Amino acid sequence: MATEGTVLGPFHTHDAPVADCGYVLHEDPDAPKLFVLCSVRDLDGKPVPDVVCDVWEGDAHGFYDVQNPDRDHPDGRAVLRSDQDGVFYFTAVVPVPYPIPMDGPVGAMLNLLNRHPNRPGHIHFMLEKKGYDTLITALYPRGDPYETSDPVFGVKESLIVDFETVDEALSQKYNVPVGTKLLNYDFVLMSDKEARELRGERSKKALQKLGLDLDIVDGLPVPAVD
C-alpha cells in the first residue's frame, strides 16, 4: 500500500537549500535533535533511488522560518535525494505543536466552532521522481496532545510514528550521537500508471454509489459504452 498523503500546509517554500544526506536542518544548537532515517520503495518493495526529497518543519518553539520578520535565509528545510538503496536521512529538531494563524477567516471560523488552533507537531515531506505519483505528506509523533484534534484534520493513523533512539551501530554509520531521538520510516510510492488506475477505480465506485453508470477516461467521467 502506498503511503498516505496529507495537507501541504502554508509554509512550504521554493528556496530550501539543496543538500546532501546528513544535513542539519536547524541552526539552533540547543534544540532537542531528531535523527530522521527514511527509505523510499515502490509497491513491489524495490528501492527507489534519486527521489527528490523536499523536507521542512518548524523550530523547537513551533515557528517556521517564514514567520520570522527578519528572515534573510531559509532554515528548517532542505532538498535531499535518496541514494541507490532508496535511503535519505537528515537531522531535524523534535517537532512540537504550534497554533495556526488566527488573524483571518480561519481564526473566526475556529472561534465560532469553539475549536482550538493547535496543530500537533510534525515534519513535512514532498517526494518527487519522474514516473511516480508525487507524494505530499507529513509524519506526526505519537502521543502529541493534539494528535486527535488537529484543526486542519491532517493526521492519519498510518502517519503517526513512534520515536526510538540512535544506538551504537547507527551512531557509527551516520555519525550521530548515541541516544539521539530517532524517526525511522519507510515511504512507499506509486507509479503514475498505478495512481491513475487507482483514482479511476475509486472514482467509478463513487459514481456507482450515486447511481451513475459512467466510465473514467483520462480522469474524466464519460457515459459507459457496452
Automatic annotation (TrEMBL):
Family matches, as InterPro entries: Intradiol_dOase_C (IPR000627), Intradiol_dOase_core (IPR015889), Intradiol_RC_Dioxygenase (IPR050770)
Keywords from the named record: Dioxygenase, Oxidoreductase
GO MF annotations in UniProt: ferric iron binding; oxidoreductase activity, acting on single donors with incorporation of molecular oxygen, incorporation of two atoms of oxygen
Domain Intradiol ring-cleavage dioxygenases intervals: 9-189
Top-level taxon: Eukaryota
Family membership noted in the UniProt record: Belongs to the intradiol ring-cleavage dioxygenase family.
Protein name (Swiss-Prot/TrEMBL): Intradiol ring-cleavage dioxygenases domain-containing protein
Species of origin: Cylindrodendrum hubeiense
Lineage: Eukaryota, Fungi, Dikarya, Ascomycota, Pezizomycotina
